[in-house]
Each structure stands twice: as C-alpha cells, then as structure tokens.
C-alpha cells in the first residue's frame, strides 16, 4: 500500500470512529487499533490529532460541498443572450445560499484557440466581461471571479485527460462539429480548438464542480466531461467529481436568437443587443427585429413560430410589465392570442418589448458605468479571485498526481520502500 492509500485509509477509519465515539473520546490509539497501524506509523502521517482532524474536515467538505463552475469567452461585450441564458440564473444561484462555492471563469485561454492571431482582442475584452459580470450582480464577496490563463494547473490536467479520449470521440461531439462548421475551419482546425472538450473537463474538475449551468447546446460538452471523469475514476480510483448539468428553466432562454431571427447571436452578424448599449441603440435594434414575414397588415393573423419579438418577450417580460406598459392585456398569453387571430400590429408589440428591455437593462448599464470609474479595482478582484481559484486547482492536481502515482516527491512511503529495496 502506498503513502496516499494508507493516508486515505486512516482518514476513512477516523471518520467512522469520530461518528461513533465523538471527537473528544477518540484517541490516536483508537485509530491505530482500528486501522492495524502502529501508533508510531500513525504519527508519521499526522503529527497530531489536530492535524488529522483538519484533514478529515477537508475530506468531508470536498465530498459534501455543492460547487458551481461557469464562465464565458472574452471575445466581446456580453449581450442579452448571455443574460437570459446564464447570467441572470448565476446571480439567482449566487444569492440563493444553496451553494458552498461559485467559480466564475473568464475563459481567455479558450478564446485564444480561435483567436491566436489576435491576442489583443482577448486581452481587451477580459475587463469588458468582468464589468458585465459585476454590473449584472455577480458579487466578488459571494462568487470567485477569475481568469482561466492564470491557473496553470488547468494545462497539466488537460494533458493527462488527453490520454483518456480518442480522436474519433472528439470528432463525434456535436458542439465541436457545429462550432467548426460555423468558423469555416474545415480541415484547418487548430488543435487547441479541437480538444476544447478536454480542456473544459479540466476546468470543471479542477474546481470539483458538482453543478454546471449551461445552455442546451453545451450539453454534449458536459457529457464528454462526465465520460472523462468516469474513465479517470475507473482507471485510477475515485478522485474526480462528476458534474451535473443545470439548464435554464425557461425554454426561451435555452438559446435566444439574434435580432434578425438567426439561430445564434453573433457580433460578426450584427444581430446582438449588448447589456451596456444605450437606450436609443436598443430601440433601433428592437424596432428592426424579425417577426412574421407573412404578417403584412395589422388585421392579418400572425404566427408566433420563429417570431423573434415574441421569443424575446417569453424570455424577458413579466405580468407587471403589462400593468406599466400595455394595460390592455393582462399577460403575455392574451397578447399572443390577439396577435394570432389578427388585429395587432408588429410595431405595437415591438414598442412593448422595447419598454421591457429598457427597464431590465437600465440598472445594469448604470452599474457598469459606475464600475468603469475604477478599473484598477476590477483587476484587483480578478487577481484575488485567480489566486483563490489556483489554490483549489492545486489541491485537485495533487489528488490527480497521487492517483496516477506520479507524486514521486510527496510519497514518503515510496521513497522509504525503495530505500529498503536497494540496500
């Protein structure tokens, strides 16, 4: 039995004894007897009962903690699709008190996989994303905001996980296939981009995330992470935490379309409404939104299917909005019914949507303008968050190295055994 296995055995036995007899009544002699290890050997691993208790608490905390990891690529300012798809929910989860730790990652290293020739774009947008995060209500006192590239352990974990995934499995990942097609990579796929599911698995497992809030399009990526975790734990023993997916509750929030009706919001397509945009620009984009192309006259019956304006209303409006901006209707169902039977024009619906969006985005925009006045503070938040995140990732990497038996200098038992062997 190696050093790590012996230590784990002692911790497991201690937990059992502490539960049966209590902390105060359990002696080091009791633990030695329960494990069949001499008291002298026990003190070789733990120099005091207090040190053992500390390890037990840490072990139990890791097992029982509820931890979230989520994040975004810093390739531009965040838009309303990010907000309804994840940001709004992150703030709710942060403030729910249900989770022990929440890690929010600015994935700059991942952004470089398809922006390697434009690092300045990524560099400039790190602070833009951080500003949007905090303007939406993510609180550094409650959530750990950090920059991916500042956590070196993630690269090493990715390197080890690559041995557990085949090329053909990566090629079958639907999200990777769709992203490759969208970027027109074809045969010229950057290796870093191609192996993104592996680096994402490193991100998730490094922080022992139990929950990953994602949109429906990211589910294949999380499934691949779960496969990597299962394979690692099967080969090397129970070490990594298998994450669960948390999808948006509102179907319209799964993936908000662009203002032109296209399936994906994209800066390059010019179909985004950004969280920090000024009121006039928001209004301009709303009034030019894609609706039902066959709804030519007010009296014509309108279709809701593929109608971007109503998709946005599904995602954003609440009953109190009708009281303030459209009192002729009690709720969205009434508005939809009127539109479908005819007699309701697109302009009236768009004006209502504009009022709703202005109300939602105004406080975010105002908070962002205040935060922009102290950029050094934003970087200090990210620096402290990155330092905290690195500590957690380092603990996970230590456990991974130990499980893979490549923790040579930390394994005192290995050194002792080999010293005896070569005498």
Strand content: 5-15%
Percent helix: 55-70%
Structural class call reads mainly alpha
Alpha-carbon distance between the two ends:
20 Å
Give the strand tally: 5
Radius of gyration: 26 Å
The main pleated sheet reads as:
3 strands, parallel
What is the overall pLDDT average? 88
In the sheet with the most strands, the strands line up as: 1-2-3
Number of helices: 20
Order of SSEs, N→C? HHHHEHEHHEHHHHHEHEHHHHHHH
Unreliable spans: none
The general outline is elongated
Question: Care to describe what's here?
Answer:
With 423 residues, this protein is mainly alpha-helical. Helix content is 58%, strand content 5%. It contains 20 helices and five strands. Strands 1-2-3 form a three-stranded parallel beta sheet. The chain has a two-stranded parallel ribbon with strand order 4-5. Strand 1 (67-72), helix 5 and strand 2 form a beta-alpha-beta unit. Helix 14 packs antiparallel against helix 18 (346-371). It is elongated, with a radius of gyration of 26 Å.
Short description:
The protein is mainly α and 423 residues long. The protein is 58% helix and 5% strand.
Key attributes of the depicted protein:
mainly alpha; 5% strand; two-stranded parallel sheet; 58% helix; three-stranded parallel sheet; single chain; 423 residues; 20 helices
Describe how the helices and strands are arranged.
Layout: H1 3-21, H2 28-35, H3 39-45, H4 49-64, E1 67-72, H5 80-96, E2 101-106, H6 108-111, H7 119-136, E3 144-147, H8 153-161, H9 167-172, H10 174-182, H11 191-194, H12 196-206, E4 211-213, H13 219-236, E5 244-246, H14 279-287, H15 308-316, H16 319-325, H17 332-341, H18 346-371, H19 375-403, H20 412-421
Parallel strand pairs: 1-2, 2-3, 4-5
């Amino acid at each position: 039995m190696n050093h790590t296995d012996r230590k784990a055995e002692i911790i497991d036995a201690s937990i059992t004894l502490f539960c049966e007899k209590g902390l105060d009544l359990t002696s080091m002699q009791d633990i030695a007897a329960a494990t069949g290890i001499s008291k002298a050997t026990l003190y070789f691993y733990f120099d005091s009962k207090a040190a053992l208790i500390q390890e037990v608490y840490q072990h139990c905390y890791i097992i029982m903690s509820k931890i979230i990891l989520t994040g975004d690529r810093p390739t531009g300012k965040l838009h309303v699709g990010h907000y309804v798809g994840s940001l709004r929910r992150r703030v709710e989860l942060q403030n729910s008190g249900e989770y022990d730790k929440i890690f929010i990652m600015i994935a700059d290293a991942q952004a470089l996989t398809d922006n390697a020739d434009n690092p300045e774009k990524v560099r400039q947008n790190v602070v833009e994303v951080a500003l949007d995060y905090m303007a939406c209500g993510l609180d550094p006192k409650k959530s750990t905001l950090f920059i991916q590239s500042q956590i070196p352990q993630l690269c090493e974990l990715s390197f080890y996980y690559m041995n557990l995934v085949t090329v053909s499995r990566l090629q079958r990942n639907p999200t990777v296939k769709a992203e490759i097609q969208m970027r027109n990579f074809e045969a010229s796929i950057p290796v870093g981009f191609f192996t993104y599911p592996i680096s994402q698995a490193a991100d998730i497992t490094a922080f022992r995330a139990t929950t990953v809030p994602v949109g429906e399009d990211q589910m294949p990526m999380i499934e691949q992470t779960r496969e990597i975790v299962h394979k690692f734990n099967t080969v090397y023993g129970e070490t990594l935490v298998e994450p669960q997916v948390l999808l948006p509750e509102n179907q319209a929030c799964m993936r908000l379309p662009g203002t032109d009706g296209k399936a994906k919001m994209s800066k390059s397509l010019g179909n985004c409404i950004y969280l920090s945009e000024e009121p006039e620009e928001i209004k301009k984009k709303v009034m030019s939104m894609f609706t039902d192309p066959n709804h030519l006259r007010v009296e014509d019956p309108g279709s809701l299917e593929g109608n971007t304006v109503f998709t946005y209303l599904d995602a954003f409006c609440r009953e109190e909005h009708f009281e303030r901006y459209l009192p002729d209707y009690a709720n969205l169902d009434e508005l939809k019914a009127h539109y479908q039977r005819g007699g309701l024009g697109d302009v009236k619906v768009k004006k209502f949507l504009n009022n709703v969006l202005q109300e939602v985005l105004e406080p975010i925009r105002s908070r962002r303008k205040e935060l922009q006045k102290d950029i050094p503070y934003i970087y200090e938040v990210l620096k402290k968050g990155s330092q905290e995140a690195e500590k957690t990732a380092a603990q996970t990497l230590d456990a991974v190295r130990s499980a893979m038996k490549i923790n040579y200098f930390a394994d005192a038992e290995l050194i002792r055994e080999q010293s005896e062997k070569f005498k």
